[in-house]
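Appendix B. Extra example for self-study. Work through it before the problem class; the solution is given directly after the inputs so you can check yourself.
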Amino acid sequence: AANKKLLFLPGDGIGPEVMRQVRRVIDWMDRKRKITFDVSEGLVGGAAIDAYGVPLSDATLAEALAVDAVMLGAVGGPKWDNPTDYTKRPEAGLLALRKELGLFANLRPAVVFDALVDASTLKADVIRGLDILIVRELTGGVYFGEPRGITEIGDGERRGVNTQVYTTSEIRRVARVAFELARKRGNKLCSMEKANVMESGLLWRQEVTRLHQEEFQDVELSHMYADNGAMQLLKNPRQFDVIVTDNLFGDILSDEAAMMTGSLGMLPSASLGAPDANGNRKALYEPVHGSAPDIAGRDLANPCATLLSFAMCLRYSFNLDEEARMIEKSIQTVLGGGMRTADIMAPGMARCSTTVMGDSILREL
Amino acid sequence: AANKKLLFLPGDGIGPEVMRQVRRVIDWMDRKRKITFDVSEGLVGGAAIDAYGVPLSDATLAEALAVDAVMLGAVGGPKWDNPTDYTKRPEAGLLALRKELGLFANLRPAVVFDALVDASTLKADVIRGLDILIVRELTGGVYFGEPRGITEIGDGERRGVNTQVYTTSEIRRVARVAFELARKRGNKLCSMEKANVMESGLLWRQEVTRLHQEEFQDVELSHMYADNGAMQLLKNPRQFDVIVTDNLFGDILSDEAAMMTGSLGMLPSASLGAPDANGNRKALYEPVHGSAPDIAGRDLANPCATLLSFAMCLRYSFNLDEEARMIEKSIQTVLGGGMRTADIMAPGMARCSTTVMGDSILREL
Ligand SMILES: CC(C)[C@H](C(=O)O)[C@@H](O)C(=O)O
Ligand SMILES: CC(C)[C@H](C(=O)O)[C@@H](O)C(=O)O
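Solution. Structure tokens for the complete assembly:
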């Protein structure tokens, strides 16, 4: 069989340095586990704008479509903060990847590591043991809906428009992913929208309910308005198992949940497409954190989120559950031993660089 | 001069019982302060659906348009949870009031009371002394944008659409309210949108920036993506003074901020229209909490949020700053003395009913 094909898109800011630690794990897999990846590398975001004038070149997109999985670092930075031309923004590269690869299901775990329970601004009693999975719809909604744009409407007035749109099948396919994941976890799914105000949210609620009736009656389903969801996450986060929501609410609520854990530098994500005839899905894996331009290039960033994203990659794209667990366990052990990058530093712990964190994790492996 | 005209709309659930405590304060003002209100009362929400078949009758709307200010309790409950006909939902009454009265600026303070600092799920050190004001746009955006609705598109598929739309003047008028309020407070305004993804958000950012340049250069202005805003609120809430944002982001973020304080039952809100030739604004005041059907009619609800909403009413609609402060101070004193309704009960405190909380506050007055 052909080698497993990976495309690396380190991107901007701290992207390259955290991705370097993944390279090391890939070498280890090659040497010690006899699992070989075929890794190509490309540019995305600001780095691609600098090189090609666009945040995602056709060649890079073609490569992304050809591989088994994409590993992404982070995109964006003040250098490219040019808010007037949307197509020339680093984010546009990421949005194009999501859309062109059809990555409609974005999995964002919000997990509190025992060793880091005090890093949260929430009380330890409230978040200890937290393990939520947010499934965010990623290729629809207001992010991609037409019509959109800004128009002059006379008298010096302008009008800005975006369109929130969802169809039955867009809702069903992401809800199906969420139901299936719930079955493998706590068997509870909460769907969030604003059905009390938005018809697109009402359709969402109706379609999720129908799919539940048809195929997933064994899963406990509840519905919540997204504003109440934002509150309930804070009030009692452990009431949730899997949450499914649309692109925009998912953006906000998953960031809220991520920050609740107190360790953004620890959180991975996976974005998955539809399974093909062989059950393979297009997929992209990236840390939840951003490009952190303020600390870029200084060997300060936390590589754990990216390494955990790679663990998700092993699990979801290559069925390498054992190796995924090994990576996850090594990270836990290293944290348990007191190693901390600056973002998760706490009194009494040992502060270390990106590289040294990588060293320690590799040693555990 | 004519008496000050107030319309009471107690609404559903705990609405009537918390509004009853406002009546008592109004009596006190009449007797002790020689300030007399002309109070009329009407139905809204589920109560209006039961009586008239619609959540806001034309007569009630006409009355709301005629008075100086509206005091609202809460709307909604499982009895009227009929998600298929939008016009027959309790929420539709509230949305119609906002729209018809032109209440475009929704002021939602998120304040942590010293006596209640432990009620939050956030660490006391993070939220002690918190005093944020969120200004939410309330009559535009995706709540009211057209086109909207659900349509059949063939093959058993449906399509749900909502439209996010903002114009220059809609953005400027709410931003102006926010800048002016910032001037009276910490002189800092943070504007939140998703300008990196939505053109309506980009217009928002540009117009807020332009107004700042033109009229409010003395106020410190910053911009934040709404997802980052959701995180920063949790990470370091006291970095904020006034936040201005659109209708939908405001719905989510203000609820997040409210829950962060740990005492939803304490938070008031004001919704203001444009000033007329005499500087008077249409206005509606309501607690941030909902109708809480589970405890309705049992004298358990916390009346403080509604009483504090009345204090806002005195301040913003009637320029009765002294009386507003008296109410606020009484509530603080009563809390300091250990009185607690069930929602804010804590070990060592004295649990009391809605009525007894009202008694105590009146005694302080
Ligand atoms: C960078 C930005 C376009 C993106 C989004 O809004 O989806 C980010 O916030 C995310 O959540 O992945
Ligand atoms: C009841 C509902 C329509 C309303 C809203 O979404 O605006 C509520 O959540 C609020 O924040 O006042």
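Self-check: Residues 59 and 224 of chain B are 42 Å apart (CA to CA). If your reasoning did not lead you there, revisit section 3.
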